[in-house]
Structure formats: structure tokens, C-alpha cells
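Hi Y.,

Following your request, here is the sequence exactly as I used it, all 207 residues.
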Amino acid sequence: MPLAVLASDPITCEGAQAYFQACGQVRLVASGRPSEAEVVAMFATQVTDETLMSMRRLSAAPSRSRTWIVLSADGISEARMLRAVRYGLVGFVPRSQAGMESVLQAVLDSRKRRAEPPDVLVRSLMDQIRTLRDGPQESQGLCMARLKEREVVVLKLLAEGLDTAEVADALNYSDRTIKNVLAGMMDRLGLRNRAHAIAYAMRSGAL
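Below is the corresponding structure, written out as C-alpha cells. Let me know if you'd prefer a different format.
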């Protein structure tokens, strides 16, 4: 997977590049050409307007395919999170709670569309979608027809705040089975991540 690293300070950038270079699971592209990467790992202490502008430039840069972003930062506001998603953010890793291994996993998961956004984004999307649930019944029926029964059950538990391991335990499935259910649904319906899947299900009236 071609990967670019962007950081707010050179020490973090060099350390992250060294880690990714040594892991053997990604191919680093030149730091001056991040739009050539499939995924960009961004590191910031605080997410500022400048951080968002960098994301916007990445989303607007000409490339053969969309560049996805995994962000590691100390914190991010809900408003900035929603803007970042529009610019291609698919994963968020709090710097205070995780190391480079978690960032790498989020990068790898982004290709499988399994990267998880923070709960604040999931809650915000759920609140927004609830206001749109009274859409045309014909459209709702079409969307529901595209969701399988097991997918709806999994999404209902995720919407209640359970993580994939807790969903697996509740349904007596393996964690891998739940992840495969989500991955298959996202690939089939063109959904980006868990938040997008929950929003889709709520808009369809399945939740």
C-alpha cells in the first residue's frame, strides 16, 4: 500500500516514516508528493484550520484515485471532524491512547474499509440522520432490501455503542465473523466505515 506521512513537526514525521519503513507492510511515497499515496497518515497535536486545509488540498489534488486519510491527534472537535470526513478522513487514532502500531492498523484497515471513526462522529451522524428518517417510503424500502437481516442486527448493536468484540459476544459469533459481515456490507453498498453504515441503516429506516 503506498503511504505518505504528514506531521506538524519534523521529529514526529521522521519517526513515523522510520517506523512505517521498517514494518514492511506499506510503501512510503516521497513526502512532497502525498497525493500519490493511497493513504496519508497525518499527525498533529491539535487539529487546526491549517490541518484541515492540508486535508482539503489532498482531496482536491489530481490523482488516479481518492486519497484516504488516517489522523492521529490529541483531540478534535465535532465540527472539525465532520469537515475532515468530507476531505477523506477514514480513521482517527488519539495520540494519548495509542502508539504507532494502532496507527498502522488503522492505515491497513482503511483499505478494507474497517477503520473506525471516534464515537463523537458516530453520535453526530446518528443525530443528523434521525432528522431525515421520515423520507419517502419507496426509497426506504429500496435501502432496506439491500441490507441483510444479520447486517441489520449487527448495526443495531453498534448503534447502541458496542464495539465489534462486544457485538460478537452478544451474538455468539467470532470477532472475525462480525468484521467480515461489516466488510462485506461496506464493499457491496459502497460504504466508507462504521459511521457511514449506521447512517445508511438509519436513513433507510432499518434502525
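The chain is about 55% helix and 15% strand.

Thanks again,
Q.
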